[in-house]
Design brief:
alpha+beta, paralog of FGE (formylglycine-generating enzyme), four-stranded mixed β-sheet, 7 helices, globular
């Protein structure tokens, strides 16, 4: 029989060895987990965050991820079939199906309303007073065309005088806005959002409540100027900033992840992808069925028992019927209707079918060239760079250097606003030996540029006039320094209205038949023109991960 004392010693030794092995295993596991932590990036150099801070280097450890901007929802990106998925009854062949990938982005829940646009107009009138010669035509260039409601055989003067400004229409979508005006609003919104962020964080003092600072002309907050050099704002007036106890100006940079990204018009691919919202047709990683409208049905009427028979959007029902019979209005409106009057689609977006059509960023072409690019497709790129003066400083537009451009319809618009950084097209030298682009102007790439004509072997800079694929009108000759032009109509018989200034608008409106509610349908209009049925909404980019949670898209389930 084995000695009990020896057996006890062996058991203690075994227990001790087990504890040692367990400690070693736990240590290895902890080290392994620590090394797998994606946020631990200091191991490449051995410098910790504390070491970097002590040495005067910066590192952002506080970034918690991007949040949705005010009034916007996340549209998780993915692949989809862009174009007509039903019968092409018009036979214009401009909605041929193509497979496209769209990146995640944020989009306004609804169209920009009269109330929101009036805030923009009020700000423009305050900062650029129309009675000041330095700001000639700046405010007027932002005002929507209220005369779009007129009809030679219709009585609509009430809408002409009241639709934009009367409080009864405050939450109705703004109309009479051209593509150029919508684009300018997006730029203005970018600056106002970032201005508010910096004021809320106490970095920027209240610009509108200070006696020592007057927000007027070039003295207004501009995000790009601030990022370039905060001391360039307000002619170096230090009272606009809160220097804090240390006495140092803390500049917020792009690397801090605090400022909002630029607002813009959505691209055509983004708009159509967001409108179709095929996420509600998803079964695991497959899409079941085809979607024609923003809702999950091939019909325009509500099938729910409570609202059975009601229309799911605001559109023209038939000739002479915009709303239905008295006492039983099918869509609740004869013209536009208050935003969010109908249920949102699966992405949480309202009125993607009906109410008003919407401007998108793209220049119109009959064909979406899937062979050229199937990732985040967009036609309209003009690559620019900041203009640098002889002293090596960025050029900022002041009150006396505002340049105006005269549009084909005789309207005058500023090329740049006072207080903005001036940008110029990149040169061939800037694009030298690049394999992704060769020049600044890419609006007509592969569809009207020199490479797509019979003169492809020539140098465009040496030609007397640039080649033109489309027989669109040429801008009339300007007269004098005033910018006035000879206002005359083009008498030449033409086969197309397509040009590099023609922009796409998507979606059906209050005066369109149900055919145009199809998210794939596309129409076009010159960028300087406006109508009583086209509005717009803004978009901005999503940075980082595609969604908040992997394979769990942010959606709003809706039952009809």
């Amino acid at each position: 029989m084995e000695n009990p004392i020896k057996l006890k010693m062996n058991m203690n030794s075994l227990f001790t060895m087990t504890r040692i092995h367990l400690l070693i295993f736990v240590s290895i596991a902890l080290v392994s987990c620590h090394n797998r932590n994606p946020s631990n990036t200091n191991s490449l150099t051995g410098w910790s965050s504390k070491d970097k801070a002590n040495a005067g280097f910066s590192e952002n450890d506080d970034y918690k991820g991007q949040t949705a901007p005010p009034g916007m929802v996340l549209v998780e990106g993915g692949s989809f079939t862009m174009g007509e998925v039903q019968d092409d009854v018009m036979f214009d062949w401009n909605t041929t199906p193509v497979k496209q990938q769209v990146r995640s982005f944020y989009m306004d829940e609804c169209e920009v309303t009269n109330s929101e646009y009036l805030f923009y107009l009020e700000w423009m009138e305050k900062v650029f007073p129309p009675n000041d010669p330095n700001y000639k035509a700046i405010y007027q260039s932002s005002v929507p065309d209220t005369l779009v409601w007129r009809d030679v055989l219709g009585f609509n003067e009430l809408l002409t005088e009241n639709y934009l400004r009367h409080p009864a229409y405050a939450n109705y979508p703004v109309v009479g806005v051209s593509w150029l005006q919508a684009n300018q609003y997006c730029k203005w919104r970018s600056d106002r959002v970032n201005e508010k962020i910096l004021m809320d964080k106490g970095i920027l003092n209240d610009l509108y409540g200070m006696d020592s600072t007057k927000v007027q002309g070039k003295n207004n907050f501009n995000t790009e100027v601030y990022l370039s050099n905060p001391k360039l704002l307000f002619e170096g007036d230090s009272t606009i900033y809160n220097y804090g106890r240390s006495g140092d100006l803390r500049q917020v940079k792009v690397s801090d992840g605090v400022l909002a990204l630029k607002f813009r018009l959505p691209t055509e691919a983004e708009w159509e992808y967001a409108a179709k919202a095929i996420v509600e047709n998803r079964e695991y990683n497959n899409i079941r069925g085809r979607k024609k409208y923003a809702w999950k049905s091939k019909y325009t009427r509500n099938a729910a028992s409570k609202y059975q028979g009601d229309q799911l959007a605001n559109f023209k029902l038939s000739k002479g019927d915009y709303s239905g019979v008295p006492g039983w209005s099918n869509d609740g409106a004869d013209i536009t209707i208050q935003v969010k009057s109908y249920e949102p689609n699966a992405f949480g977006l309202y009125d993607m079918s009906g109410n008003v059509a919407e401007w998108v960023a793209d220049v119109y072409r009959p064909i979406i060239d899937n062979d050229a690019n199937d990732f985040n497709y967009f036609r309209g790129n003009l690559f620019t760079k900041k203009m640098i003066d002889a002293e090596g400083k960025v050029v900022i537009i002041d009150d006396n250097s505002v340049e105006f451009d005269t549009l084909d319809n005789g309207q005058m618009v500023p090329k740049y606003m006072p207080g903005e950084i001036k940008y110029i097209p990149i040169t061939k030298r800037d694009a030298y030996m690049r394999n992704n682009y060769e020049k600044a102007y890419n609006v007509n790439a592969k569809d009207g540029d020199l490479a797509s004509t019979k003169s492809y072997e020539q140098d465009e800079d040496e030609m007397e006039s640039a080649p033109r694929m489309y027989n669109s009108p040429v801008k009339p000759r300007e007269i004098g320094e005033s910018g006035l032009i000879i206002q005359q109509y083009d008498e030449k018989v033409r086969n197309t209205l397509i040009s590099d200034e023609t922009r796409v608008y998507k979606g059906g409106s209050w005066q369109d038949r149900a055919y145009w509610l199809d998210s794939a349908q596309r129409r076009y209009l010159p960028q300087y023109m406006s109508t009583n049925f086209i509005g717009f909404r803004c978009a901005t980019d999503r940075v980082g991960s595609m969604t908040y949670k992997r394979r769990k898209p942010s959606t709003t389930k809706v039952r009809y």
